[in-house]
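Sequence only, no structure available. Ideas?
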Amino acid sequence: MRLISLIPSITETLIDCNANLVGRSRFCIHPEPEVGRIPAVGGTKRVDWGSMADLQPDLVILDKEENTREMAESCPYPYLALHITRVEDVGPEFSRLAERIGNIALGKFARRWEQASRLAGKQYAIRSLPGIIEWWRPPTIQTRVEYLIWRNPWMAIGEGTFIHSMLGRMGMGELLTPHAEKYPEIELAALNPQQTVLLFSSEPFPFQRYRDELLELGYACGLIDGESYSWYGTRSLRFLETCCQ
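Reply:
I predicted one. Tokens follow.
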């Protein structure tokens, strides 16, 4: 079956499972060098369906969180829209995809995810949180945590997101600032620097480039591996298994 995946984490996983990927989004960057040999056909929010005609896809794989409803409604090819917002969702959704495309390796991978989702997790202290690339200003007390994914405007993660679910498995659930929206815009100036730790995700915004400027804000803060916490496939499974077993 000729597949197009417009979800970076799914693209990586399908390549690892030797699926026949003929197209991807331009944000699908792992694994190299394999992904570099697959044509990029658009982004995760906008795509030119006409550009896919020569690829003759049998199935386009979308995600309800990463891709838009308009993309699904305008897709001229058969498509499957996954919906993953929690660790517990990954196994069943991968099983559904594996059955649809007839991929045995992906089915085995889905069962591995289901086993991982039953792991109890661990209660890490904030300073020993797995996935921290570098503490720019280490926290001195266990306090409130904001996980930031964007700047101008500042955007954090809230409940109902896969990142929140992963952080909960690391013992951060009660420390994360509660937000009703999944990806709320926040006012950083409203946060108390003495009581708040900022976790800057390594992607999608390039916070690393602004390290010195971000330090001037006065918060305890650090750079965290966003791919391990948000790429719900091969990458996050290895991370979860390592941290919670």
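The radius of gyration is 19 Å.
Hope that gets you unstuck.
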